[in-house]
């Protein structure tokens, strides 16, 4: 299926947007895991709030990978809506 120029631009824009959110989520997860490791190793304690936040970041990454899997199949308007929902969820905490 050939894409129109507008569709191709939208698909590229969505791929970049998805990649940026995924990068931000990975960095956030790295920070949270480092904090968990530090508190567990040096203080002998688990920070349950940080553990819960880490699980939320994992969930966001899972949603992003699901969107990425369907990126070429879905309508670019649907992808934009899904990305907006994930952004709202991720950047709100």
* Tally of DSSP β-strands: 0
Beta-strand percentage range: under 5%
Q: Which term fits the overall shape?
A: elongated
Largest sheet: none
Helical content (DSSP H or I, runs of 4+):
over 70%
Low-confidence stretches: none
Annotation field: number of helices: 3
How far apart the termini lie comes to: 39 Å
What structural class do you assign from the helix and strand content? mainly alpha
Q: Would you write up a description of this structure?
A:
The chain is 83% helix and 0% strand. It contains three helices and no strands. The protein has helices at residues 5-43, 48-69, 76-91. With 93 residues, it is mainly alpha-helical. The mean pLDDT is 89.
Which key features would you list for this structure?
3 helices; 93 residues; elongated; mainly alpha; single chain
How do the helices and strands line up, and which of them pair or pack?
Layout (H helix, E strand, L loop, with lengths): L4 H39 L4 H22 L6 H16 L2
Brief rundown of the structure:
The protein has 93 residues and is mainly alpha-helical. It has three helices and no strands.
């Amino acid at each position: 299926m050939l894409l129109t120029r507008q569709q191709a631009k939208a698909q590229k824009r969505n791929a970049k947007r998805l990649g940026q959110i995924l990068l931000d989520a990975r960095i956030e997860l790295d920070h949270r895991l480092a904090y968990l490791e530090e508190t567990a190793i040096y203080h002998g304690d688990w920070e349950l709030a940080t553990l819960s936040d880490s699980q939320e970041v994992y969930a966001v990454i899972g949603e992003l990978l699901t969107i990425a899997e369907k990126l070429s199949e879905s309508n670019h308007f649907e992808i934009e809506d899904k990305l907006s929902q994930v952004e709202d969820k991720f950047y709100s905490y």
